[in-house]
Amino acid sequence: MTAQAPTAPADVYAEVQHFYARQMRYLDSGEAETWAGTFTEDGSFAPPSLPEPVRGRPLLAEGARNAAAGLAAARETHRHWVGMLTVTPADDGSLTAESLVSIVAVAQGGPARLHLVCTCRDVLVREGGRLLVRERVVTRDDRP
């Protein structure tokens, strides 16, 4: 049997859940700069749709603004739902947070539909007493 990785204490786990609740609301409501501010200054985001990770808050905010504009033009809203979260502490004080993320798309005047299901692996660090994403890697379940 494989040894189980250590898990974060309950208070840290709850803090990470609250972090994602806020972060995904920022993204879903188009608050690009606020969302980008949940990453470290040099944080990276590697989505499966891009050949290279996006690095740094200015480029993260730009990507979020572009995504929000595209959704507005399509008259669609996306809602990210983070679930099946595990939080593993590392010796350096960082946390590895792994989750399944469902993205629900809602067309204006239309029904909601499941848009994507992804796996998200974040490395979270503390700066100034708050959690920030240092590195995010997203993989899609419908791609090898």
From TrEMBL:
Domain SnoaL-like: 12-136
Domain of life according to the entry: Bacteria
Pfam families, alphabetized: SnoaL_4
Protein name from the UniProt record: AknV
Record organism: Streptomyces galilaeus
Biological classification of the source: Bacteria, Bacillati, Actinomycetota, Actinomycetes, Kitasatosporales
Gene name linked to the record: aknV
